[in-house]
């Protein structure tokens, strides 16, 4: 199995650079690609979220900046340039650091959060072989890297020297650390069954057997535990208590503005993409096409199954999951902090543990 | 690094004073709450008011009776018609004038439409307080229809100056009744939709049921009134208990909190009483529209308001509770003293009593369920 990193190393061999220079060049290229993916993802996802929320709330959403088309004399699906305009606004905004804040930590915090999301993308495959670097412990790496961000959140909340930020940071720390446990336990189930931490192998297993979500009733449950926990992990409604705008103003982001706030935003949407891609790879067959689930389609349709369309299937599954997350956000009220902990420690973790036990039994029996 | 952020020689735990407001998304205006917290648990709350003080009562001592009406509008800006109506009733009592039937019917129709509009805001923002954003946009969309009706009525959308002592400023515009009934037909299913989305949502119930319980006797002692008191199961509604205008002619129920989801008097009850009251208001409007008599709305309008010396107290059931106008006259065209009893002020006073021991998130929910309007508290 190859990765972008390996293939770049081969194709750039003609430059005759020494190893250090070559690796630096490749890292730079890879980093640029990741950054572009994150930026484009944020632009598209924000626009998507605004339109989804507008649809659910009987509004139009952004309509003015950049008009895609006219239909019957009326603008429709407009405002495509809105998020771009917002990004430019954020980047050109005055940079404000509160006087009494801990300036070093306050500047550092967004970069820690950003690097958490950024580093995760290195091990995240978008399709077969489309991965920056192919780790054989990919799943472990992703879970580890996605918990780096919480350090940045605590730093951001503490260094702002604002009580609302502090509350937000404490809540976020408690929440993210707690919800990593059910996430880890549900992913562990997949690892037990497939016998590998390598995401490619996990999809390989699903290709020879079946999608993990259909592996057993326990895997089905594990998918839901994983998905709901990731909603909490990415701080989205109904688990958005760290930035609950009606309680904590903006939580740990209260004192941030401009570019640093944009970094938070970028990381938030990047995290959403990451958890949804992981869910689609681990539970929903990754780059396998769903056409194989029910064998009623004519043979010629299976051309959609080819490796070229792997990227399409991963994205489609991830986008559907992202849509469900947005659906949650615009439908549900917010939980209280103790109820959130209750759901995690008294519902998800026992169920995830029981799941793990029963799926091991299942594997023994069948 | 400048300045030591914390004294590192001693680390002790203690209460933290959290300053919520006056600029905060959920204090419903410019209310400031000094919250003493132990972690997330609230141990004491001190509401600080007065950021919107406009000397309403002092102004009234310099203005003629007619000129006070626009000022009453600005007290409870979410239910301006109620304020106009309450003030007009007090002045009419002072003048001792009989109103034409048509005026009374129009006033009732308008007041109940206003109650729907005001409760829609209360219900929507309460959803917002517990984190549900979509119900707010839905209720605001429906309120828009009421505001459109009022716009055809008097040209204004928020501060109407419509109900005057002795009558109303304009007769109903053509087709107003049809449009009002159209709105009611449209509105009834919307309440069901709201109930499906928010009222019966499991998370919403978890957040609001059994939270911030207001026992009836505490509510009465603090002078709480309106839906906030009825949420505690106290059947007290001035429209029934002390009928003014022509409310005694109509058949409607007074919804009270029954503790369906938790304990009687919790935030869910206070919320749900408002939802039910919107249906009752719709019922009253339908009856009033069916019986609307003809006549001249300006027939009883006094040319000049110059009451005899004396004093009067008019009570009125507004969307927030028991509004009272106490007016003293010394025989001039300017009142000697106007005192307003603000229901939201009394409702706010109970906040610290019922929210101690709850979490910060609950304080927001409790405050939202009391449905305060700072314009009326500060006057």
Characteristic key phrases:
heterodimer, A: 366 residues, mainly alpha, two-stranded antiparallel sheet, B: 379 residues, Cytochrome-c3 Hydrogenase, chain B, 3-stranded antiparallel beta sheet, 15 helices, globular
List the topology elements.
The complex is a heterodimer of chains A (366) and B (379).
Chain A: H1 4-11, H2 19-56, E1 69-71, E2 74-76, H3 82-91, H4 103-122, H5 138-146, H6 149-159, H7 163-194, H8 199-208, H9 217-233, H10 245-248, H11 258-282, H12 310-329, H13 337-365
Antiparallel strand pairs in A: 1-2
Helix pairs in contact in A: 1-2, 2-3, 2-11, 3-11, 4-5, 4-6, 4-11, 6-7, 7-9, 7-13, 9-11, 9-13, 11-12
Chain B: E1 16-20, E2 32-38, E3 41-48, H1 56-60, H2 65-73, H3 80-95, H4 101-129, H5 134-154, E4 163-164, E5 167-168, H6 176-199, H7 202-208, H8 216-221, H9 227-230, H10 238-241, H11 267-291, E6 310-317, E7 322-329, E8 337-341, H12 343-349, H13 351-355, H14 360-370, H15 374-378
Antiparallel strand pairs in B: 1-2, 2-3, 4-5, 6-7, 7-8
Account of the protein in words:
The complex is a heterodimer of chains A (366) and B (379). By secondary structure, chain A is mainly alpha-helical. Chain A has helices at 4-11, 19-56, 82-91, 103-122, 138-146, 149-159, 163-194, 199-208, 217-233, 245-248, 258-282, 310-329, 337-365, and strands spanning 69-71, 74-76. Chain A has one domain (100-365). Helix content of chain A is 64%, strand content 2%. In chain A, helix 3 packs across helix 11 (258-282), helix 9 runs antiparallel to helix 13 (337-365) and helix 11 (258-282) crosses helix 12. Chain B has helices spanning 56-60, 65-73, 80-95, 101-129, 134-154, 176-199, 202-208, 216-221, 227-230, 238-241, 267-291, 343-349, 351-355, 360-370, 374-378, and strands at residues 16-20, 32-38, 41-48, 163-164, 167-168, 310-317, 322-329, 337-341. Chain B has 15 helices and 8 strands. By secondary structure, chain B is α+β, with helices and mostly antiparallel strands. The model of chain B has no long low-confidence stretch (mean pLDDT 86). In chain B, helix 4 (101-129) packs antiparallel against helix 14, helix 6 runs antiparallel to helix 11 and helix 11 (267-291) packs parallel to helix 14 (360-370). Chain B has a single domain (54-378), classed as Cytochrome-c3 Hydrogenase, chain B. Classes of the chains: A mainly alpha (366), B alpha+beta (379). The interface between A and B is medium-sized, with 31 and 33 residues.
